[in-house]
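Q: Structure tokens for this one, please.
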Amino acid sequence: MNIIGIGTDIIECERIERMIQRHGSHFTDRVFTACEIRYCTDRKSSDQHFAGRWAAKEAVLKSLGTGWISGIAWTDVEVVNEPSGAPRIHLHSGAAKIAGEKRIAHIQISISHCKSHAIAFAAAIGETENESLTPNHKPQTTDHSK
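A: Here is the predicted structure, written as tokens:
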């Protein structure tokens, strides 16, 4: 395994809750994909789930070595869940381009939250000598402009 970068982020759940109360769908639509919004709003304590995804997006971009730069939208980093519930990262557009340039095969993510805080840790894993960017490892791209 070749670790290209790591990132972590922590956020107060109340901060995200205030942003949602203040700005509503203008905020959520700008920051989260439709799939993420559905997932979070279907959960008890949705503010904790939104905060966890916020922290995950921040952690992923830190693991890419970029932080928030021009050419990357919030929705370029998407947190989806496996049937088991485990989170998985899909990269789109600008974030996927950067991952490809850095030969990142996939990103591992861990998210935790409680009533007050959410935290996430990301590790950007590069391809090994015997591994190339296959469809299963290639950062996934989706056009969310529609």
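A few notes: Residues 134-138, 140-146 have pLDDT under 50 and may be disordered. Strands lie at 2-12, 77-81, 87-91, 104-113, 117-126.
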